[in-house]
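Whether sequence alone determines local backbone shape is best considered at the level of individual chains. The sequence in question and its structure tokens are set out directly beneath this paragraph.

***
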Amino acid sequence: MNDTITLRGFVASEVKSSTTTRGTSTASFRLGTTERRYDRTSNTWVDGNTNWYTVQSFRYLAGHVGCSVKKGQRVIVIGKLRLRQWEHEGRIYHVAEIDAESVGHDLMWGSANFTRMNGTSASADSNPSGEAAGKPGDPGIEWEAGDNEQAPPEDETETVDVDDPDGAGPLVVNTTTGELLGAGA
């Protein structure tokens, strides 16, 4: 089975980070998802069954998961579902694994402060679609306008009239994406 699935749940274990013999970064953790329903007879919310998954991530996602995700946090995971079974001492065991494509905090339960990695986290060889990473004009990157219909737009930055809380001057914001690019003009 190789289906894409989206899960909301809680991180039930510490993230285990490692590197394969070929140098690929990995990170994994256990994810629990519990069904909640409203019981009209008792007028209360009741927890249902808890499903357990092992979430596995690789390469740059693994590094980000290792730095960002902690036990007890609520997360949303998108990835490929794999159901495996094996036999040990006459018993058959089953496990549900998720090969994560995206992992993020569930903002229904709290707030997060996102920090975008600049160029070092998404290289061209980690891009699953095979398209070049970067933007037109970057050295070593050639955009094929015919492949994508048109090249992506240039980033438009603008200095906004909000002082940096650290007192370093005005903040610079990408007006296309709304991303905070750094302090100072």
The chain has a mean pLDDT of 74. Helices lie at 59-68. DSSP finds one helix and nine strands in the chain. The first strand starts at residue 3 and ends at 11.
